[in-house]
Amino acid sequence: MALLKYKTMFFTVRTVTCRACGCLQRVQHLLKTDSHDSRFLESLPSKNQSPLKLAEYSTYCGRTERYLSAVACSVLRKEQQRPISRFDFLDMEDIEEITIKAERSRYLRRFVLNSDLANLIVERLDGDLSEDNAIIFECNPGPGVLTRALLNGGAQRVVSLEGDKQFLPALQSLERRLHGQLEVVHCDFFKLDPIGRGPVRPPAMSSEKLFNDLGIAPVAWTADIQIRVVGMLPQKTERNVLWKLIYALFERISVFQLGRIEMNIFMSEKEYTKLTAEAGNLKHYQALTALYQLACEIQLLHKEPWSSFATNSKNGGYGIQRSSLTNDHLCLVRLTPRKDLFTPTLTAANSSTLVLMLKQCLTKRKAKLIDRLESWCPGSGAKLLRQLGLPEDILTGDVHPEEYKELFEAMEHSQDFSQSWLYEEVLENMNSTVSHI
Questions:
Q1: What mean pLDDT comes out for the span 362-368?
Q2: PANTHER family, alphabetically (predicted)?
């Protein structure tokens, strides 16, 4: 029996009989010990602690310092989900080894290194992944803790898109053991389809090549979800990535050329708050807010404190950006594109015009909408507002996303409005937004 020490948490690895088929499985168990029993601790060989700054790695919910937060523990217990000591059908790597790998990552990243947190994430995604035929795109899995949880949860096909070469050997080794259930690609999902000329080198990649290599064909926009993205937004470019995704969604390019792609992504609590702000909230209701609410069903699956995730921050902290908003958690948010987003009037061909229209309207949320309409087509603003049943003194920040869609469609049908004021700005605006990613 092997015994591993990591701070105050100890594991045993032993062989048990599988109840389903009678085969032998190697499983990892938590060996509960009294952390105050100095005689027991002194009897174990000491190891140098990794310099990676982690919170106390313990799933005991009574502790004030812990790696898996009390939120995850209490949710599982309250809802009587499968127990926290659930068997891992796939062996986990040595925690010290994956900690060292995480520390060596070149860029600021956050990692799920605790299997209990990984299991909770899988529970939030779906109660039984084996009943879902969608392909899972896992973004930057790193050491693969969440990868194993997805596979143990019944996922039929997982595509791990990892941009850091150091994590590829272990993931590829796991891939070879699973006979097609896992596919590993050296690619960063958030760097698909980079803007610019010249050869595209990993971790950047064209979505067309990725889909061709994986044998995935496009489906109708109204078809069932065939791809579910699971991952964590890159912290430094979080907002730019959200902009890049919404441009791609409205124009049905990049990953959205395959149809509706469901995104289950961790984002900062700050960005989630902005994304769900209501019309009339003149401080946080923005163009990105209206566009995502118009395009997607937004569902909060789980909130987890920053301290539950490992980070390779060189300054030893969690690298959390200061904000006037509450920003104590990472939020697991599901973004599901709406089947009825596109209409005979709003199409992928003209949707970039709608995007820019919203950006111009909501740059100054205390401005009157009629003034913006008059700047586009003098003498026609009041007429259009009456047609939509909107008051003439309504502010741009008080207009709901659906009302902006109706406004755009009314302008498309109107003989008074010309789109020439937008055409020259659309591509330049998109390029300036995504070029910083």
A1: 96
A2: DIMETHYLADENOSINE TRANSFERASE, DIMETHYLADENOSINE TRANSFERASE 2, MITOCHONDRIAL
Same fold, 51-337 and 351-434: no
Tokens of 382: 């009041």
- pLDDT averaged over the chain? 79
Domain boundaries, the chain: 1-47, 51-337, 351-434
Alpha-carbon distance 264 to 158, whole Å? 14
Handedness of CA 398, 429, 336, 74 (dihedral sign): negative
Report the binding-site residues for S-adenosyl-L-methionine. 112, 162, 188
For residue 37 the two structure tokens come to 């029993």
Q: What is the DSSP letter of 391?
A: -
Q: How far is CA 224 from CA 108, 134, 228, 238, 257, in A?
A: 35, 9, 11, 28, 14
Q: Which residues contact 130 (CB under 8 A, 6 or more apart)?
A: 153, 154, 155, 156
CB 308, CB 187: distance < 8 Å:
no
Q: Cα separations (Å) of 161 from 23, 251, 387?
A: 32, 23, 49
State the amino acid at position 392 in one-letter form: E
Give the CATH number of domain 351-434; options: 3.40.50, 1.10.8, 1.10.357, 1.10.3470.
Answer: 1.10.8
Region class of 223: left (phi > 0), else alpha (psi between -120 and 50), else beta: beta
For strands 135-139 and 158-162, give the pairing: parallel
What pLDDT shows up at residue 74? 52
Q: Residue 298 belongs to what H/E stretch?
A: strand 296-305
CA 330 from centroid of its chain's CA atoms: 10
Going by C-alpha positions, the residue among 246, 268, 249 that lies closest to residue 258 is 249
Looking at residue 347, its amino acid is T
Q: Which of 130, 175, 178, 308 is nearest to 232 (CA)?
A: 308
Distance CA 98, CA 293 (A): 38
Q: What residues does 265 pair with on adjacent strands?
A: 231, 333
Residue-wise pLDDT tens digits, 11-66: 333 333 343 444 434 343 333 333 333 333 333 334 444 434 333 333 323 322 32
Tell whether domain 51-337 is in CATH 3.40.50.150. yes
Average pLDDT over residues 87-115: 70
* Confidence at residue 360, expressed as pLDDT on a 0 to 100 scale: 92
CA 257, CA 260: separation in Å to the nearest integer? 8
Give the residue ranges of the annotated binding site: 112, 162, 188
